[in-house]
Structures are given as structure tokens and as C-alpha cells.
Amino acid sequence: MTPQQQDWKPMESSTAGARCRNCGTHVTQQFARVFGDNGDVVHGCPSCTTYREMQSGGHLPGSR
Predict the structure, then answer these.
(1) How far apart are CA 59 and CA 47, in angstroms?
(2) Tens digits of per-residue pLDDT, 8-37?
(3) If DSSP states are collapsed to H, E and C, what string results for 5-27?
(4) In this model, does residue 40 exceed pLDDT 80?
(5) Most distant CA pair in the chain, distance
(6) What region, left, alpha or beta, does residue 57 occupy, with left being phi > 0 and alpha being psi -120 to 50 degrees?
(7) Distance between CA 61 and CA 37 in Å, rounded?
(8) Do residues 33 and 40 lie in contact, with contact meaning Cβ atoms separated by under 8 Å?
(9) Separation of alpha carbons 16 and 18, rounded Å
């Protein structure tokens, strides 16, 4: 018996999905991959961080 692969749905979020470590807001897995650290952990989201900080990595720990 082989395990079935789950279809990747980049815009779909789940109730057990990623959350911002800073404010606790739910974010999609795609957001976590793009704006999270190397482990897809989100340290700042649009609810608590500016897009400029997210694009430059200014929201990640140790970047200040």
C-alpha cells in the first residue's frame, strides 16, 4: 500500500495552519513559505508588520 499524496492548494488555509508568532493571526501556508524563516515560521504578518519590513526581512529575529 502506498501513501497518497495530498494535492497542494496554495491559497487554501486550514484551521491548524500557520500563525504569526508576533500577533497570532492565521496566515496561509503559501504566506509562510514566502515571508517566513527557513522553517516557514512567520514572525510578522500584514496585521502587525509593514510590507517593507517583510520584503527586506526586517521582521525576522536577529535582523534589527
Answers:
(1) 12
(2) 555 554 456 789 999 999 999 999 999 888
(3) CCCCCCCCCCCCCCEECCCCCEC
(4) yes
(5) 50
(6) left
(7) 9
(8) yes
(9) 7
Cα–Cα nearest to 45, from 27, 60, 30: 27
Query: Which residue stretches of 1-64 are H helix?
Result: 29-35, 51-56
Query: Which residue's entry shows cell 504566506?
Result: 31
The whole-chain average pLDDT of the chain stands at: 79
- Which set of grid coordinates corresponds to residue 57? 526581512
φ, ψ (nearest 5 deg) of residue 5: -80, 140
CA nearest 14: which of 3, 28, 2, 25?
28
**Predicted TM-score (pTM) of this structure:** 0.63
Q: Are 35 and 29 in contact (CB under 8 A)?
A: no
